[in-house]
Q: What sequence folds into this?
């Protein structure tokens, strides 16, 4: 015996009403029908009983030990995920698009992307094993800092750094020395090698700078060849290096596919000295190992240096303007 | 001289915490147990509930920064958990088909009682069994509505269907549970008459 059509049509509402899940209109319809229809009255009672049993299910599943174990495992995996989480943002700048990636500890990768807008293969290789998410907004401040820096309105990127991508203790030491080169000054690869106590490891020091995970922030552009040639920078282009140094007021001229700093137009700081000199000062070499060259007196004095009392760069300033 | 300027050192990125860890921890504390139980009922296995509940919260962690502050975190977690379940069952089915196992087991219908997590009266056990035998969408809709009391809008979002379809799934689920219980009662009576 099949149910009357009216009962079939009402069944969803009846089930909903019996299980406390119907709107007021549907509940009224069901109530009116159930008064007249004995079969549906029985159905209603049956579903109501089932609803009671179903409600009991809520408190029924006893799984506390399993929940506790799963929670502990989750906490361990969250700790691991947290330590590997890296957010990045791509910032358009005068030297092309630049990727900035940071962890909870600080900035850990700065990469030139040229025209690219996504992390490239090189960035992906370096970030392998980390969880990379596109940044929603936190890196925006870093991007603003970087733009100000590249426009010469800021001389410091005082960002906290996460050095986990640095390959070795030697590299770390080279980067530490490089980070200490003041704005507007240059050092030589040989000078850095000498500074870290390995004067013969000039090539190794250059390699360490090649693998610098944070160019600009750790200013490897301020390290040049002893001859004054820029010699190399990010991906083989010295244009960016030239741009960064020019912004800092370092005098440069193009030379056959490279650039050369004008050593005779720069002030000299001998290693261990606290006075800056003219390049003609009898007390210093033109580009001493472990020393620095400054593009201007302002930059030398901003670095806390006093003018040499022998050659008096304060009385006989260099003509630093480059045509 | 060189070591003086621009010292580099580790420090917290000021205000740059990647994820609001305190907020996320609070969310885990509030919802982990419930999501676990939901997954245990949906999959019928503690091993699956272990894996899928962890995966639910790891996914939530990755996406947490994008979650609007006024979002319904609980419904959001149910949606993530449900999607993971669906993928889990699909993968399971693929594996089953690949092996072309001679005796194809239905998604374990008695796993709950088998591993001893469920202690209850017999009628409840019969309901648990009936729920475990429901098709995926009906089972999920039924559990979310009747056990976890989510609204139909949320259930619809989790199942990628309308609230009305979600309601229809719950209706079908209740009909099937009733039929299963009526069958159970009949066999009980026969048992008693013997």
A:
């Amino acid at each position: 015996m099949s149910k009357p059509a009216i009962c079939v049509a009402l069944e969803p509402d009846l089930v909903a009403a019996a299980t406390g899940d119907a709107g007021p209109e549907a509940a009224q319809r069901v109530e009116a029908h159930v008064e007249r229809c004995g079969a549906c009255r029985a159905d209603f009672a049956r579903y109501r009983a089932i609803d009671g049993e179903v409600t009991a299910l809520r408190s029924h599943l006893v799984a506390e030990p399993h929940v506790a174990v799963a929670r502990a495992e989750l906490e361990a995996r969250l700790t691991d995920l947290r330590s590997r989480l890296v957010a990045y943002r791509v910032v358009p700048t005068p030297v092309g698009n630049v990727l900035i990636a940071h962890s909870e500890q600080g900035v850990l990768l700065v990469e030139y992307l040229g025209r690219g807008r996504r992390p490239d293969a090189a960035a992906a290789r370096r970030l392998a094993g980390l969880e990379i998410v596109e940044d929603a907004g936190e890196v925006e401040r870093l991007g603003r800092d970087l733009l100000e820096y590249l426009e010469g309105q800021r001389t410091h990127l005082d960002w906290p750094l996460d050095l986990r991508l640095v390959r070795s203790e030697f590299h770390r030491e080279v980067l530490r020395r490089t980070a200490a080169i003041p704005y507007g000054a240059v050092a030589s690869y040989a000078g850095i090698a000498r500074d870290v106590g390995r004067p013969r490891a000039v090539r190794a020091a250059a390699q360490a700078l090649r693998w610098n995970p944070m160019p600009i922030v750790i200013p490897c552009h301020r390290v040049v060849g002893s001859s004054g040639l820029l010699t190399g920078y990010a991906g083989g282009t010295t244009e960016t290096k030239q741009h960064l140094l020019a912004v800092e007021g370092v005098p440069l001229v193009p030379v056959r596919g490279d650039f050369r700093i004008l050593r005779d137009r720069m002030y000299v700081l001998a290693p261990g000295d606290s006075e800056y000199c003219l390049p003609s000062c009898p007390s210093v070499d033109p580009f001493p190992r472990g020393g620095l060259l400054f593009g201007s007196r302002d930059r030398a004095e901003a670095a806390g240096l006093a003018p040499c009392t022998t050659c008096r760069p304060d009385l006989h300033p260099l003509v630093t303007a480059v045509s | 001289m060189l070591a003086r300027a621009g010292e580099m050192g580790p420090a917290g990125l000021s205000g740059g915490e990647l994820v609001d860890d305190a907020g996320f921890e609070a969310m885990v504390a509030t919802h982990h147990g419930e999501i676990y139980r939901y997954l245990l009922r949906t999959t019928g296995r503690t091993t699956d509930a272990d894996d899928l509940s962890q995966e639910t919260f790891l996914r939530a962690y990755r996406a947490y920064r994008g979650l609007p502050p006024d979002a319904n975190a609980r419904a959001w977690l149910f949606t993530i958990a449900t999607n993971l379940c669906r993928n889990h069952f699909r993968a399971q089915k693929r594996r089953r088909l690949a092996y072309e196992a001679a005796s194809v087991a239905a998604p374990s219908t008695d796993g709950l009682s088998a591993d001893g997590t469920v202690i209850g009266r017999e009628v409840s056990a019969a309901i648990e069994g009936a729920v475990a035998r429901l098709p995926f969408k009906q089972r999920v809709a039924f559990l979310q509505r009747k056990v976890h009391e989510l609204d139909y809008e949320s259930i619809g979002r989790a199942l990628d269907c309308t609230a009305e379809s979600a309601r229809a799934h719950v209706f079908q689920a209740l009909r099937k549970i009733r039929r299963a219980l009526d069958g159970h009662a009949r066999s009980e009576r026969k048992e008693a008459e013997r």
